[in-house]
């Protein structure tokens, strides 16, 4: 019986250790160029995967977290995770990966100081990283301006004091909160199920709201946005969505997300926004639910 004999290439030897033949990888080219977005998140942030869902393939996220502090979700924690020195150190840590923009991905940390506090945070990050910077709360104001929305319903997982701080921040920006629902949580926010977010949204949308905002970057929202937009017939924004939308826009890219009004092309967006709503009648006074 006859067989074929093949000759294996001679192995190369380095430091007396046999190795296989060198592989020709020239046809592979080099690494594909990618835009980079630096993300500063609080130490308890647990939704890295959700952020990535808004990101196109040619963009890379580079995340870092603020140092741990033994404090529950509160106004105190919001102040601690947004201290200027904390921001400087986080931005410097991201610098080695050469991001083109840096996003501070925390809603409460960026609204707790009001509009002036949010602007000061951006200035600190701009200086430390020498690249443009933005925050979740600043991105929210940009998104509301993009949609022409001035009367919003609000959903948060926070305590009442943190929620009222967000309402005050929005009020400074000329945005009226027509209704609100909140959970009162101080920990484990990332464990809140989608159905709880949807139920809160249904409760919050009262009066003449033209947009719904779901706050907190540690609250999962990607898959609830299309459902709520279809049910409530209004644009729905969330903390992670507006953060990624603004960061990607800053580098000339677009966020990815089906059936999300904010992410539509401008020509597709026209005609999808609700007509101006009438002012609420006396029996529809704004309030907390």
UniProtKB/TrEMBL annotation:
It comes from the Bacteria. InterPro entries: Iso_Racemase_Enz_sf, MaiA/AMDase. The lineage of its organism: Bacteria, Bacillati, Actinomycetota, Actinomycetes, Kitasatosporales. It comes from Streptomyces pristinaespiralis (strain ATCC 25486 / DSM 40338 / CBS 914.69 / JCM 4507 / KCC S-0507 / NBRC 13074 / NRRL 2958 / 5647). This is Decarboxylase.
């Amino acid at each position: 019986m006859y067989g074929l004999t093949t000759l294996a290439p001679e192995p190369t030897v380095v430091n007396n250790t046999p190795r296989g033949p060198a592989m020709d990888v020239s046809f592979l080219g080099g690494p594909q160029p990618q835009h980079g977005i630096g993300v500063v998140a609080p130490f308890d942030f647990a939704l890295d995967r959700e952020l990535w869902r808004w990101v196109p393939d040619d963009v890379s996220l580079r995340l870092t977290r603020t140092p741990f502090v033994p404090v529950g979700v509160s106004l105190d924690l919001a102040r601690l995770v947004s201290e200027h020195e904390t921001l400087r150190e986080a931005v410097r840590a991201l610098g080695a990966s050469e991001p083109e923009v840096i996003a501070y991905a925390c809603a409460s940390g960026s609204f707790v100081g009001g509009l002036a506090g949010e602007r000061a945070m951006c200035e600190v990050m701009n200086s430390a990283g020498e690249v443009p910077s933005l925050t979740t709360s600043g991105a929210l104001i940009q998104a509301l301006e993009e949609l022409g929305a001035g009367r919003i319903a609000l959903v948060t997982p926070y305590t009442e004091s943190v929620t009222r701080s967000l309402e005050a921040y929005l009020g400074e920006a000329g945005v009226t909160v027509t209704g609100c629902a909140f959970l009162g949580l101080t920990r484990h926010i990332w464990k809140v199920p989608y159905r709880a977010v949807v139920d809160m949204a249904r409760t919050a949308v009262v009066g003449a709201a033209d947009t719904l905002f779901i706050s907190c970057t540690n609250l999962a929202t990607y898959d609830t946005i299309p459902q709520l937009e279809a049910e409530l017939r209004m644009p729905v924004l969330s903390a992670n969505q507006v953060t990624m939308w603004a960061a990607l826009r800053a580098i000339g890219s677009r966020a990815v997300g089906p059936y999300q009004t904010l992410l539509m092309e401008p020509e597709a967006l026209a005609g999808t926004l609700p007509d101006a709503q009438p002012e609420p009648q006396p029996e529809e006074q704004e309030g907390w639910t």
